[in-house]
């Protein structure tokens, strides 16, 4: 190993399994996950093959010094190898008593398969003879040798398939089997394998113009370097970017004595979980193979046997392993994922780590471990990633089903959906019974009916924050958005995906959790917990899950400080959200009600009206319908606050975009088409996002908001008479100046007083505002003079704070996230430094004026765990999110309160 | 006077001209401008007819108490009347020795003609007899009586013309003259007038069912009430809204002894200025009429004589008046506007106040008064409203010319222009020599060439911040925007305004200072100062003005702390701005250069290119042209910093909007029209303001910015070789995160190092950013790690802070300003509470990271005086504005520094 610059003496190498174990489980940062756990098992006196870990600091050093190593490293490695030899009773590079080593990566966070590994290291033509002598098994020894040369040639020396070539080592192996007339590797003899070793080495020399290193020390040096290099391999970099693992963490290298599960029938190798990772059941769960190496268990050539069978084959080792599993679970107070090898009847532990599990299992294990007094409730709550709760509420595809993927979009709203393709929203409504997937270039508010009727929504344009995505998430409906490879042709009623043409009526399936678009009808499974929550004759398994879920969420509710409300526009969504634990409505968007059925006609009549009188006439038709909606919502939310936002979108959103629909509308309403066109032209905006909408409408057309306030107050009084406790919170959108709010609050109070006076009844209500324009946050002290509550509309606030149009940002935002210019899509996860600063300023300034100001958030971020944590930190009173994300927000709020 | 609620004893009435004067000039708020100055003259022992002022507090009280008065008021009025009687030697209401009074309004700020006045009060049938006896002139006495009844009947009793009716008093007067066969009022005899008094009273009784009050005390009470009521008359309210005068200030009421300029040939009345209000010349300037009342001077029936003639007519009074004028000017240290009356040879001063003047006069007077040691330079600088300097630089219409106004738009860019109507920009260029007015629905960047060629620009849509307005102001060119009453028909090449049809080629004139659109060729006058500044053979008068202007602006430059730069995109504009005193360029918009001549073809080739190589090929064509522009600008700004903003607008702005032009472009470039359409469709944005522009383009298409940086650095090196000191400051637009700036600054430094290395020469340059996205201000501490300067782009920052699209806000913004929801259009005058807070945060946070950070502002606000004052307060280093506003900004900056 090339020595270079001097460096003050630092410990770089940590032994385990030797006479002195030098690390422990707390040293994950220094030793990586694998190394730290090997050290910990060694501390627990468990049978770990001796070895040592080269720390992550060496990796950092290596990259800081152009691929050189600290001067002291080689001495420390030499000493560690000596200690390993001492413990294992063999000698590295000694033909008479050889010790073979494995060299494995091991980063702080698990990066499975992303970095390199070299096994069976320390063998050459002389040493293999010693191995034969000691094992008495030439075939085993040459198999080990053959595997080593192949792996080293690939991983360390870089001889691999180029272009469309097949792996050249595999080519030679296949040739050999063909020549011998056998099918399986295991049918090759020791002689065959010996020949292969020579052929592999010749191949390396021919292709790389280098000799295969025979010197074990040189082999070790090469393997260590290869592991460090693999930290910055393309695969590893991509993986880290996807998983958000910092590039400067570096990997450790674990050098460990080889043990063999393939030295005969008294050998075995296997993997196990200390509990069932699918269900969470408390029972050892795993698989093993007799006379096999670890890689064979996953390779799938032989079918592994369930772990219980090991008791028959290796009763002593099985007992010991079971005991160790229980011990490790108790020690780590966490479900373990373990790897073991039995060499000649002797058990060796190769790995232990926290086991991955389904969400259902995670909930059950967390709750069970509290009952077992292994962990506290606080710890239990931290064990389940909030986002994972989604899995429990959405249908999923049958895992065994075949998928013919024809497109990849953005996973915009989770779930699994299958149905026949339709392109027009009204057709989706007409064919609802068949089960349809609505396929659109993009959706707009006009399409709500069709979206509601569809099983799932697939769009070619728009991101995770597009209209389609937002609405679908609100509805808890599966959506794949921005699948740009689809060429949709509305005229021919078909789309092409690559060279496939999919016509109207063809079956497709979409996976809203992965973004995949599949041909045909892929079978789905309903989410059992959802059925249980909704009381739809669930099975016993689902009821059990529901009990665990309720226990777990109960703890979360007791732990959290933030209230969790929901964004819901219909009585149905409100009821659903209440089942999911919503404590009120944080955002009821009244405009969605404007699109339903023939209401849109009245809305259009209002827009076309020549004057205020005409508008009032049309609004009188709308009022009873709005009132009825509100009554339903108040009923569903009996006793809980309901925040109703007055009309927000610009009026042109209620008019058809395309000429034929405009003509149709003119015909239907009995007005000249030219008039419709003229009005649509006059309403056109260059930047509708920053246009004539929100309270700006309320001020220029006061009659609209007046009608809405009347409908709210009347609805509240109506249900109150029937014993329902209605708590309306009237929210004025897009306020930027206190004068806007003052004027509209004045109107609201006047209307409310008039109606309550006439009916001789009172209903409590609040008037507040959405803080979604940056200016509103900046002058929140003034606005709080009028506002009885604030609700941060972080969708629009993010748009304006960044100057990003959500509808257009697809042109650069993915690029920004990819290049690391932004850590995440700010429409998904709240930008804490910029938009978040406005939340802080707005909350602090608002409460400076009005100490008891109720402050919440009702953007999409209300259901994003890291954003929820931020809201907790800022001291908000509540978050509000779509119904299906309510449980996520409840748990995220609990975790935030506990951390 | 109705006494009502008790009130602790407060002084409400202030005497002047009596034995004790109770107010002075400092009490403007309490006594109104008129009252305070009457008191002040009285203090100076000048001959002021005795009287008293009822304070503005009474007005406030009156409105706070539903039209009642404080209890003590009547007693105080009675005492004051007694004192006036004592001084003037007559008695109010005494037929044997009558004293008549005038009752006039007088607010803190002058509201000429907006409130009511009653003269000759205190007369009735018995008193008129006494007046005849004491004056010996029955005709005079009945004329006074007739005038009083008419005025009181109108103002106090409210008898005025209804609908299309002629004033009923005037009808009776006309009838009388007809009956007597005379032409002029003055030809009526005492008897005629006596009859008229009776007829007037009968008319009042018939129409109002009330008697005319004969009791002088009752008359006084009614007149005082009428003046208070007139404070909230429609006219007054409208005026206050226009002038920004608070509604709660209230008016004072001045009650004063009448003096008469119409009691014979030894009487006269006149108005005067202590200096010439047109030129500022130091000589008494005014007009008078012998034997006349004040209102006759302005009525225009008799032509007044120049004041100098008074010396012949009334030598003693003239001497006295001249002395008083000089005394008052010295006393107030300000040019005075005075009113006087000579009654039987005795001079009475009725009013003095600061005189209105032209801007040229204001500058001259301010400079002269410093020379005369009347005022300090500091005071001189405060005497000229910065916005008024505009008058000196723009052509104006000949005041005597007849105007046929056919439309009223927004005064979007000052000046006067006349020309033939054209609708197409290319036609404007072709017919430039004729002088054209470019008439468009709205303008877009494609139209720049035509706008430049036109004398003036008239648009039917868009506000003062529309594209047309912004560009026109930048060019110093007259523009009337948003003249919505024009119906433009591009197809027929005509527009209609009301029932007038104006065709292409017809002459029109537009006034950018008033917003008027006029038929025909209204003669204009060039601004003499502009000619002098540009050295275009000005006359002696212009050179004199230039000397005064330079002296005055020199003082401003020494006083101010803020530097003043200009927004200029061409060498010509840069030179012009330097003449106006710009100290560098604060914003050079490189995209404007992209539209000139055939450059647009290369730009379009770049946009249509399939890949980076194709884009680079097109950019190579653009580079020499950009470089040449920069060389010209660096030369014009030799030794001064030049801030160059890299490409900002979204690419679709460079492509034609309409199908025929798109086809033409495709033909010209030899590509299929469908391709052009497809690319335009793919570039379409829902909210281009928040879209793929600014540094977002620079990051996704780095080759564009690279070309621009190359052109800048090469240009700087080229001119440097020729002895020009180039100081480029490269500005990255629309930065929202430090990562964007870091990446683009890295690119800039690399490109610069490469070129300087190749040329073996150095040129100093800075890299900084525009702060125009709210987030950038919020994370300015991070951004300042990379930025060497900040320039607040307050146009876009205002759009995003408010969430107002400048192009769409016309739908509600005028309404907002009218209703007082906003104090002013935030695109005109910086919103200090909201957008301004971001300026404060951004500056403070930026300087926290980088102490010496250079910070400026380059939005339109850089030329708005109140915004400049705010920038001074925030501690910016400079403001930058369009060339023609540079002098305004210099003066505004000086005033800010002095206040």
Describe this structure in words.
The structure is a homodimer of 899-residue chains. With 899 residues, chain A is an alpha/beta fold. Chain A has an eight-stranded mixed sheet with strand order 12-22-21-14-15-16-17-13. Chain A has an eight-stranded parallel β-barrel with strand order 24-25-26-27-28-29-30-31, surrounded by six helices. Chain A has a five-stranded antiparallel sheet with strand order 1-2-5-3-4, with helices on both faces. In chain A, strand 21 and strand 22 (516-519) form a beta hairpin. In chain A, helix 5 packs parallel to helix 7 and helix 22 packs antiparallel against helix 23. The longest helix of chain A is centred in the C-terminal third of the chain and has 25 residues, at 612-636. The first copy, chain A, starts with 12 loop residues before the first strand and ends with a helix. In chain A, 53% of the residues are buried. The mean pLDDT of chain A is 92. Chains A and B meet through helix 26, helix 28, helix 29, helix 31 and helix 33 of A and helix 26, helix 28, helix 29, helix 31 and helix 33 of B.
Structure keywords:
899 residues
Shape of chain A: elongated
How are strands sequenced across the largest beta sheet of chain A?
A: 12-22-21-14-15-16-17-13
Range of strand content of chain A? 15-25%
Gap between N and C termini of chain A: 45 Å
Percent of residues in helices of chain A comes to: 40-55%
Strand pairing plus helix content of chain A: what structural class?
A: alpha/beta
Oligomer: homodimer
Largest interface: A-B, 49 and 49 residues
Number of strands of chain A: 31
Q: Taking Cα atoms only, what radius of gyration of chain A do you get, to the nearest Å?
A: 33 Å
